[in-house]
Amino acid sequence: MSKKNTFYYSDPINDDFSTIPIKTKKLPKDFKYIHRNPFWLFFEFTIYHIIVRPLIFIWVKIKFHQHFVGRYKLRPFRKTGYFVYINHTGNDLDAFTPSLLTFPKKDFLICNPDATSIPGIRNFVMMLGAIPVYTDIAHARSFSNAVATRIKEKKAVIIYPEAHIWPYYTDIRPFRDTSMAYPYDLNVPCFTMTNVYKKRLLPFVKRPSVVSYVSGPFYADRSLPRHEAKKELRDRLYNEMKKTVDRFPKYEYIHYEYRAPRVKDSASAR
């Protein structure tokens, strides 16, 4: 395998391999998570449903030859808000696929503030459904209210529990149980969508196709204390995603190899 297709990691939880360099900016003090202005809502509907969603369908189908297995499991919940947990293995794939998964329901994506840090397109990204994680404790309540509001509006909220992008990674990385508080606190179902990369039939096409497997619904065990319920739900979701990727041969478009972190020489440190 060529060197350019090998990524070296030392921390499976915190290492990030996003191919889009962005300088993260803090959210402004007057940042609004929810907009009720009629003009905003008009442009949001037009941009998302009329312009972007059809383009997403074309882009994802051509580039990734993507299709879903088990999407029917979401149908009984069209009149209910829910969460979907997805493995974080792509830039455009992870930004676009949820829109196709939840159609016709709009999806809202809990994301890193990087998504709203690109100059000139913050409002556009927000109209597409971004819910950036707060950078200031002053925004904590507004952030939580935004998530709860979208669920009450019977929307889908997308979460990437691995938090960092590893393009085309074929396994499931360990992730924390922090985001498992949402299904517990709001008492709504959640699902997993696991992207699996498969070799294409055409030998000259190296980029893999993507099959997205949907599992669920899963519910938090509210008979347990909150901290125990979060861990228990996290383990169930992780095991389901891990079981899904392990069912198929792993086609590596990019190879990931562990490299031990460098330890500073104690003498030089002094």
Taken together, the total number of domains comes to 1
Strand content: 15-25%
What is the tally of helical segments? 7
Output the radius of gyration. Answer: 19 Å
Any idea what the shape is?
Answer: globular
Kindly report the CATH topology: Glycerol-3-phosphate (1)-acyltransferase
Helix content: 25-40%
DSSP, total strands: 9
Query: What value does the average pLDDT take?
Result: 90
Beginning-to-end CA distance, first to last residue: 41 Å
Q: Could you name the CATH class?
A: Alpha Beta
> Strand arrangement, largest sheet?
2-8-7-3-6-4-5
Poorly predicted parts = 265-270
What is the name of the CATH architecture? 3-Layer(aba) Sandwich
